[in-house]
Structures are given as C-alpha cells and as structure tokens.
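Hi P.,

Sorry for the delay on this. The queue was packed all week, but I finally got your sequence through. Input first:
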Amino acid sequence: MASDSRFMTILRVITSTKGDEESTKLEEVPEIKGGARLSKSIGLLSSITIVVGSVIGSGIFVSPQGILAMTNSFGASIIVWIACGLFSLVGAYCYAELGTMMPRSGADYSYVYEAFGPFFGFLRLWIEVIVAQPVAAAIISMVFANYLLKPAFPTCAESSPTAVRLLACVCVLTVGFINCMSVRWSTRTQDIFTFAKVSALVMIIITGFVQIGRGRTEEFEDPFEGSNWNPGSLTVAFYNGLFAYSGWNCLNCMIEEMKNPRRDLPIAITVSCLIITVIYTMANVAYATVLTIPEILNSDAVAVSFAIRIYGPAWWIMPIFVAFSTFGGVNGTVMTTSRIFFVASQQNQMPKLLSFLQTSNLTPIPAIMLMCGVTIIYVAIGEISSLMNYLGFVKWLSIGISVLIVIIFRFTRRTMERPVK
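Then the structure:
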C-alpha cells in the first residue's frame, strides 16, 4: 500500500470530462488544483525551433541525390525544392487554421476525431501509433547512428548494422529520458540542436558563396540543360523533396503547451517554413558550386562528399553536425508524438495509463515510454530504405485527410471562430 501511495503521488490521470473541457480528480495530489494539465511553457521562439528542428533532419543532407536523379539538372532541382517549400507552407497554413479553431494537442488525431467521430479517430490514432511516428523516429535515429560512426570508421564503406542499431537505440533512450525529465529540458535540447543543424547548413551556404566568388559557376551557365520534365519523374522528385520538408505539422501536437497558441501557431509555422525553404534552396546552390551532377548522384551522403572535397582533413565536422541535426529530429518527433498518445487516452481510445502526468514537471512519462519502446522495435527489425517506403504513403495520406477537414469545416461549421483563415 505504501508503494502504491507513493506511485500515485508521482502520477495523476484525467478521469472525467464535462462539456467540451476535461476536468481532473486530484485526490492524490491535493496541493495542485484545477486539473492535470500539460505545462504551458512553449513561447514563440521555442515554437519556431521545434518546427525547424523537427523538419531539418537527414533530408537536406540526403535528398538532393534523389531529386537530381529525377530532374537531371540543377535548375530543375532548385525549382522542385522551392515548390516543395511553398506546398508545405500551404499545408502548414491549413494546420494553423485547424489548430487555432481547436486548440488542443493531438494534431491529426484530434481533427479526425472531431470531424468523423471516434471510430475514424481510432483508426487514425493507431496508424500513428503503429506506423507513422515510430517509423519516422526509427529512420532518423538510424541516420544519426550512421553519421556519428563515420568519423570513427572513415575507411569502412558502411557501418556495422549491429553498431548502427545499438547506437540508434541509445539515441532514442537518451531522447526519452530528456523528455521524461522536463518539457523545458526537451525544448532547450531542441533549441540547441536546431542551432547546431542550422549552423551546419549556414557553413555549407557560406562555403558556396565563397566558391561563387572564386568563379566556380560552371553548373549555372546553363542550369536547365538536359532537364527531365516528365510528369512521372517530377512526381518522384516532389516525393523526395517533401520527405525533406516533413514535420512542419508537429507543433499542432503540442498546442496545449503553447503560451499563446492563437498568436504563435500561425507565426511559428509561417516563419519556420520560409526559413527552411530559403536554407534548403541556398544549400543546394552551394552543393552545385563544389560537386558535379555525377558526383552527387554517386554519393551516399551529399553533405559528407561536399565536406571531403572542400574541407580536407576537417571533413569529419560535417557528419558530426548531421548527427546533431538528426538527434534534434528524433527529439522533436518523440516530444510531439507522445502528446498524441496522451490526448487519445483522455478520449478512452488508448489505455488510461497513458494520460498520467508526472506531478512536478507535468510530463506524460507513460506516453513517452510507449513512443520510445515502439521506435526501438522498428530500429531492431527494419532497414532505413524499407522503413521510408512504409512511412511515405501513410504520412501524406494523413496530411491530405486533415487538409480535407479544413474544407469540410468551411461548409459544416461556418459559425466556428477561425483566428486564421
């Protein structure tokens, strides 16, 4: 009984609902009144770094190869990168409208639940739990491990799969620990690693400008020569580009923890998408000043090939920065997705245990542990390429449904307040 009592003083659970608002029985935690709520500790700057940190992962360091292979020219590939950024901005603004209409955590799950009812909400939830988010975190953590091992084993063509998986698991567990300890810890971690990944890209961009200043502009003399405008090829190129932009909707998962979501959500999403689009475009221009099209197509990691060519013995800096970038991506995915599980348990569509909060820091520890556990399973059994195939279709189908909900609500809920429209 004593241990049960101590356990209940650590955790609290939302147990009842009244109207549209959840209320909480806190019999075991009488010193805290007003219900168990996620801590409102995320301001505008942290909101921007969460989005930028979640989006900029491995994509910009790997995807240029896939886009260039489909377009056959730097000019066409740059157009694809910009178009993907604008497409993401439009989608993000749809999420801003939904998020400010319904300022509750859970993102796609909450919107599907509200629009189509509990059954479809349940289906959407379990797709998120079983496939989408754990697979995304597994991919990013394995990329983290691959890049972190490159400086340690520079002569190896590829790292040991066992070493990659073990290091990826360490990454996931470390992120889980940080998120369990404090929302502030996790947002500060995101701030730091976002700064690191942006610094890596700024370093690439500055190097590109230096190369342009030296007259290294051969690839831009006829940038559209040999371009492939075949619709099928462009579709695949867009698919690769959108993978690099995925994650711009992550802030909607944490909207209840934002200090001023109606003001900050649309600003953060808009600013983040514009920053990312500019950085991605300029980084690709920089790649073109150092590497030729065949060199990019034959590279497993464009950023590392760029660093080896231009930085010489200091090339190892780039894989370390890429590892930092992907660590921030794992942190952003775990931080935001655990809130989906938390919200779903409030709706009785997942075990009630997942709505428990740690009392002093108000972190959803059981939800975080579930997210990390499922991610580690995918790390143990999957390869990066196969996991990406599972993820892509599910991810964009879910986003398409949420955009459809915006249109549906314009007709079925015309009187609903829309701070963003």
